[in-house]
Amino acid sequence: xxxxxxxxxxxxxxxxxxxxxxxxxxxxxxxxxxxxxxxxxxxxxxxxxxxxxxxxxxxxxxxxxxxxxxxxxxxxxxxxxxxxxxxxxxxxxxxxxxxxxxxxxxxxxxxxxxxxxxx
Length: 119
Description:
globular
């Protein structure tokens, strides 16, 4: 009989770990600070600094869950609207330029609610 509580405990632990998070752990401040080195490039004001691609790759690593990817999308759209002179073609191609594969378009018209981790 001592074996049954151990099985139940294991099942509870597995269930907790298998349930995907419903809320993002990424804050917009993290998104903007991670990509701050990209702004001059994205406004045609300078070359692409290596720190920009480091930030793109880091953000991609941070956003591994669907809620995180949706949050990053919303933050990028909100922040992007505040940056004057943003070159949307450079924005759209930034992940590819930095060697990062993103399974959805980077655009102000992207519906963040449709983003998932599925490729």
